[in-house]
Inverse folding.
C-alpha cells in the first residue's frame, strides 16, 4: 500500500488493515488462528490463536506515523489497556496475551510481536 493511500484510510480501516497484516504474520509462522474480533462482554479481543499449545489473546495496535509524531503503536498499549485486555482474555479462557504493533509510515510498515506482553 502506498503512503498516500494509507493517509486516506479511516482509523477503523487502518485498524482492520493492521489486523489483516498481524493475522498474515502469525499464519506465516504456522500459528493457528482460532477466531478474529471476538466479542467478550462489552469488549473485543482482536485475535484468539493457538500459540505453542496455549490459547492466546492477541491485541493488535495500529498507528499512522507522520512527521509530526514519532509515536509507535506499542505506545498505545498503556496500563489501562493492559488491564482491559487481561479481563477479556480471562473471560475468553486465554492463558496468554500477546501484542502485535503495526506502525504505518512513509517509509513502509513496521510490525513488532511481543509474546506474553502481560
Amino acid at each position: 500500500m502506498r503512503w498516500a493511500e494509507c493517509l486516506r484510510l479511516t482509523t477503523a480501516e487502518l485498524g482492520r488493515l493492521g489486523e489483516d497484516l498481524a493475522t498474515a504474520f502469525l499464519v506465516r509462522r504456522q500459528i493457528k488462528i482460532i477466531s478474529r474480533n471476538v466479542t467478550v462482554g462489552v469488549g473485543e479481543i482482536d485475535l484468539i490463536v493457538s500459540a505453542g499449545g496455549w490459547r492466546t489473546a492477541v491485541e493488535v495496535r495500529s498507528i499512522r506515523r507522520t512527521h509530526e509524531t514519532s509515536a509507535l503503536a506499542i505506545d498505545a498499549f498503556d496500563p489501562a489497556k493492559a488491564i482491559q485486555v487481561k479481563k477479556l482474555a480471562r473471560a475468553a479462557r486465554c492463558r496468554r496475551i500477546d501484542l502485535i504493533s503495526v506502525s504505518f509510515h512513509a517509509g513502509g510498515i513496521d510490525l513488532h510481536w511481543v509474546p506474553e506482553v502481560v
User: Anything to note?
Assistant: The mean pLDDT is 89. The first strand starts at residue 32 and ends at 40.
